[in-house]
Amino acid sequence: MKGLTRTETHFSLCGLNCALCSMHLGGYCPGCGGGAGNQSCALAKCSLEHGGVQFCWECPEYPCSRYDGFDDGDSFVPHRNRKQDIAQAREIGLEAYLAQLEEKRTILEKLLAHYNDGRRKALFNTAVYLLPLEDLQSVMAVLDGRPELEVQPIKERALAAVELLQEAADRRGISLKLNKNPKKG
Questions:
Q1: pLDDT at 160 over 80
Q2: Distance from CA of residue 152 to its chain's centroid?
Q3: Residue 140, CA distances (Å) to 69, 84, 122, 143 in order
Q4: Which of 1, 8, 17, 99 is the most exposed place for a label (fewest CB within 10 A)?
Q5: Burial readout 104-116 (b: 16 or more C-beta within 10 A, e: otherwise)
Q6: 8 Å CB contact between 181 and 73
Q7: Long-range contact set of residues 138-144: C-beta below 8 Å, sequence gap at least 24
Q8: How far apart are CA 13 and CA 4, in angstroms?
Q9: What is the pLDDT of residue 1?
Q10: Does a cis peptide bond (omega within 30 degrees of 0) precede residue 78?
């Protein structure tokens, strides 16, 4: 959004984890308020109208009607954890939350570099976005503990990673499918 600049581009104005977004990882979007290439956003415009708050939760009107139905569908990233992520960032502090987010990003980069057979990018992004850090660390420990995978074809490595991520999601009752935006009217 033209005119909006933020120093924090890994955690968006509205609580989405830009650091885990495929558009951000691919260099197509600099993150919320990060500069050129940034998408137009009604919440960014609202931030400017409210003095340039860095996070919506800093606004005295948060949560406002702009959030009605916001989490009902996903974009490139799941929106389901947004409120939970905001609450966690506020509870443990932004710096600690960003450190956890960076750990998740490192895991995602490793999954994409070593386990992506060309068909798993969205699933890996979604899993890392939705699963708690400790579950992701456990999955990576299991994968790292299976040196035989290193010599397997990429398709086999991908299937092993997907199976472990899906098992972790199932234990938590988490769907790793992006939710389509509901049809209006």
A1: yes
A2: 29
A3: 34, 24, 18, 5
A4: 99
A5: bbebbebbbeebb
A6: yes
A7: 138/168, 139/164, 139/165, 139/168, 140/107, 140/110, 143/115
A8: 10
A9: 56
A10: no
Amino acid at 146: R
Say how many C-beta atoms besides its own lie within 10 A of residue 61's C-beta. Answer: 11
- The secondary structure element, H or E, covering residue 7 is none
Q: Taking a C-beta distance cutoff of 8 angstroms, is the pair 97, 88 a contact? A: yes
Distance CA 148, CA 157 (A): 10
Handedness of CA 160, 98, 121, 112 (dihedral sign): negative
Q: Which two tokens stand for residue 78?
A: 């799941």
Give the Cα separation of 133 and 130 in Å (integer). 9
pTM of the model: 0.85
What's the token pair of residue 102?
């960076």
Question: What was the pLDDT predicted at 29?
Answer: 76
Overall size of the chain counted in residues: 185
Count of alpha carbons within 13 angstroms of residue 185, beta-carbon side: 0
Structure tokens at 101: 């987010």
What is the reported pLDDT for 28? Answer: 79
Rounded distance, CA 67 to CA 52, Å?
Answer: 18
